[in-house]
Amino acid sequence: MLVTELLLAVSSGVVVITDVRSRKISNKICILILLCCLFISLENESIKLQFIQAVLVVVFGLTLFSLGVVGAGDVKLLSCYSLIISPKYWLLTLMLIGFIGGICAITILVKNLLFSRQENFGVPYGIPIVISSLFFIHLTIVS
Questions:
Q1: Is 34 exposed, middle or buried (0-12, 13-18, 19+ CB in 10 A)?
Q2: CA nearest neighbour of 5 among 51, 46, 41
Q3: Alpha helix locations (H) across 1-143?
Q4: pLDDT tens for each residue of 70-119
Q5: pTM as predicted
Q6: CB 89 within 8 A of CB 139
Q7: Chain centroid offset of residue 56 CA
Q8: SS3 state of residue 3
Q9: What span, in angstroms and rounded, lies between the C-alpha atoms of 40 and 8?
Q10: Exposed/middle/buried for 53, CB within 10 Å: 0-12, 13-18, 19+?
């Protein structure tokens, strides 16, 4: 189980780095994270797969993607993580994603104002998704 969790952490780190650099989240990394989440649920029988959460993330996420609000990579990433986050932590996960995303947005805004940049690449939401999801996956595993 430790190897799977370590692989999940490393692949999540890769997501953060690539999202910051290019604002893209690779399909291959999402598949690796999905497999890690599935293996974690198989290794720990107290974790039940949350298919309804994952489907809701995909449905609402694709709607938001079609409106240009979020990126498709963010939707795929959150749907993978949502498979093993306990329903009792789900709302807290979404709230923490929003809070950390707000901090990221303010940081980017201040940076652009200080350095007089007019770049608008958007907010790398992979960062708050990874931080929040890994935290609540950990809580799901230990509870």
A1: middle
A2: 41
A3: 2-22, 27-43, 51-66, 72-82, 87-114, 126-142
A4: 999 999 999 999 999 999 999 999 999 999 999 999 998 888 888 877 66
A5: 0.93
A6: yes
A7: 15
A8: helix
A9: 9
A10: buried
